[in-house]
Amino acid sequence: MPCVEHDPFFIQVDNFFKKAYVSGVGSVQLTFKQVTSERLQPGGGEGGFKAQQKREAAVQTATKGKGKSKAGPSTKSTGQYCMIRAVYKKQKVSTLVRGRDVIQFQKNLNQLMRGHMSSTMEKRSKRT
In degrees, to the nearest 5, what angle opens at C-alpha 98 toward C-alphas 61 and 75? Predict the structure, then answer.
């Protein structure tokens, strides 16, 4: 499951909705999951978040003795992220959104979903 940036994610979800509409079969499932930065490893291995924290701690301890940094250990709080997954049949795509950006992301996703809800609105208007 590729983890992509926000814009490619919206493009892929848009394609999922179009495929579902054209084929008339299947549905697009969106899943939101809260993730803390402690469990987050975007690159995995040496490029992961925990490895980055270890490198920062090693740099701070190395510079601590030299008197360059008086701040001491990092007091950053753990970041909150939201992982959004979209699934259409067996195709999957996901993205990570920072906690402070979730509302804007949901607004953009809402616009995308409203654009593809026209088929349900047409069916309702035909009945009345």
Answer: 25
Cα–Cα nearest to 78, from 50, 46, 57, 106: 50
Q: How far is CA 38 from CA 23, 34, 43, 120, in A?
A: 41, 12, 14, 41
Q: Which two tokens stand for residue 75?
A: 């007091």
**How far apart (Å, rounded) are the C-alpha atoms in residues 128 and 126?**
6
pLDDT tens-digit series, residues 86-101: 999 999 999 999 888 8
Whether the CB-CB separation of 35 and 81 falls below 8 Å is answered with: yes
Contact between residue 6 and residue 97 where contact means Cβ atoms under 8 Å apart = yes
Largest CA distance in the chain: 78
The owner of tokens 């616009």 is 111
> pTM for this structure?
0.61
Cα–Cα distance, 101 to 99 (Å, whole number): 5
